[in-house]
Amino acid sequence: MRKAILLVIFLYASGYAVAQDSDTGTGAERRRNAYNEPISEPFAQGRFIPDISLIADFSVATRDIGDERYESLEVPGLIHAHSHEGEDHHHAAPNARNGFNFNYGELSLYSVVDPYFDLFATFHLSEESFEVEEAYFTTRSLPLGLQVKAGKYLSSFGRTNEQHSHYWDFANRPLVYRAFFGDHGLLERGARLTLLAPLPFYLLIGGEVLTGENEASFGTEGFEDFTGANSVEDVNGPGLYTGYIKTSFDIGQFVVLMGASLARGKTRIDHGVADDPAENPEGHAASGTTGIAGADLTVKYLIDSYRYISLQTEYLYRALDGYRYDNAGTKAELEKRQSGIYSQLVVRFARRWRIGFRYDLIDKNEVKAGGTMADLPDTLDRYTGMIEFNPSEFARIRLQYGHDRSSYLYEGERRKINNELVLQFNMAIGAHGAHAF
Amino acid sequence: MKRILSFALLALTLIASRADAKLNVACSYPWIADLASKIGGDRVSVSSLSRGSWNPHFVVPRPSLIVRAREADLLIINGAQLEIGWLPPVVRESRNPNIQQGTRGLLDLSTAVRLIDKPVDVSRSGGDVHPDGNPHYALDPHNIIPLSSAVAARYALIDPEGAALYESNLSVFQTEWKKRLAAWDSRLSGLRGIKAVSYHSLYNYFARRYGIMLVGTVEPLPGIPPSSRHMESLVERSRAEKLTLVLQDVYNPAGPSRMLAGKTGARLVVLPHDVGSVPEANDLFGLFDSIAGRLER
Hints:
The structure holds 2 protein chains of 2 kinds. Chain A contains 3 helices and 22 strands. By secondary structure, chain A is mainly beta. By secondary structure, chain B is α/β, with parallel strands linked by helices. Chain B has 2 domains: 162 residues, Rossmann fold (3-Layer(aba) Sandwich), CATH 3.40.50.1980; 107 residues, Nitrogenase molybdenum iron protein domain (Rossmann fold), CATH 3.40.50. Chain B contains 10 helices and 8 strands. Chain B has a 4-stranded parallel β-sheet, with helices on both faces. A 4-stranded parallel β-sheet of chain B has the order 6-5-7-8, with helices on both faces. In chain B, helix 2 crosses helix 5, helix 3 crosses helix 4 and helix 5 runs antiparallel to helix 6. The longest helix of chain B has 25 residues. The radius of gyration of chain B is 21 Å and the shape is globular. The relative contact order of chain B is 0.12. The chains are: A mainly beta, B alpha/beta. Chains A and B meet through strand 11 of A and helix 1, helix 3 and helix 4 of B.
């Protein structure tokens, strides 16, 4: 009997639910509870759930060389192989293994906080770790086109740095970015102030104060060499400052976006300077000041709603002035002058298809230690081509071929041309916000 | 140096605010811009963020749009998630506190009409679905009456001094629109009961108004281009249903629709969906004149 009553109540309630669904206009008829009173949910918060999305990236890769040798590849004077024992390196380069790769999961949350702030968070998931990649707020209502962003975030330096990897046009980051900013990009704790200038065209001026932990160009932790002869103190407080200016305008169906960026900060890079020379004869470290300047240009020709041709190029120059230390107790003046460029052409030739080609080049690689110029190769280049099928807005299948002439094998210091083929799958579920240009 | 810079910025801000005493209205689509300028008259300066020849779901969020959103006193949108793929970053990046969600500087026109086709089951296995219902409500010409009232009401709220002008512009517009509505209704009355297929669920409000029976879409699911298997079954179904019309928009490839029309003997009609989609659709009147004309032919 009780069951029957419950069933009747249930049918009654669901009938109301259907009635309400089909009649969203009036709101006069409300759902009723078991006592036939309008249902009241005074403490319900379900409608305040933030936008949640999950992106997962998988790939199958095959390359000329085995995984271990691939990991030990270096770009002389620019990228050191990570062979630090015991160091957790979750946030590694994508597609690092022959065979199947789970590159990353990206869990994002976004919501308005109140009338004054927006809050964004992105969690980087690997097979073993759950990291806070980004967590920052932005202001909503500052006057005069000003906006403050603060927390941990990808710096707005340059064109590519700010973009999350699922939004990249290729499966890996440009060579010069990897060389100067490492596998994480310029990802820092800090704060940013930007001004959208009150002009009839787009002009964005920004400045950032960042911690400067970036392991490829900056760094904050001091060190002492094995002998104890030389030591360098930690960087206390913010060690990195960036500034940039970006402008954009349309010429008919062409969209032009240009930018110039500067970053300047303290450098503390330790590659085993405290190691016993008997075990690690190569142990060394660097300290000093590094400046990086960047210029970028994007020209996108919009053919129609679906098709476009996009040309993007970016040039980065790095200068380090400081000292080199080794674990035998030597300290020498160090001067680095390095630069690189990438240029890419991406064509979306049909609604679901894109094709792209990228050329990477390190064109300057001067490292002078103790007054002697190191003998480093200075034309390091890489060719990348890709074709992409996007079944929907939420899924991407990409086949990418890379011909990399920038990598050297550690032992023997010889160039190892690396050919690789990557089939990448990228999927997004949930409420993922639209991307900016 | 800093002082000079801040002074220059202040001066620029003053110039920017002085030069434009008119109410600055940004609209997501050209039909909204046309409505906004007809109701606003000389008191407003209106711009559209997109073009009528584009797919309204996919507009490239160019930085120049951010500039127009920054200058806006009022942003009028279609709503019902039609702009979800492009407008949110533009509004956010504009840093314009007057047009953010929840302010009176943002008018979502979908709240002025009754939406149809609200999905019971919201899942992307159904393609690019709109959870709030079909957003293409502007293609029912009868909806333009409440939409124009909504625009006038919001103008009066933001700019009370112009309320009388907006009211009189509205009444002139609605009188003319009702006259034309009667003409369109009679011209299109012959469509009642005929069967049609459209590429996307773009003409559902129009079809509902004039009694056209939509028996399928060329795209198997919203946002998914047709496969050959889907086309085969659509041809079969269309033959069984005795299809009369294939409605094609201006921004999707017409090939599959042409094939369907060819195989079933139905007439292929390319219909504008917005002001500026085709040359004759130079304003809202022209849009529906053009639709009526193309269907009559």
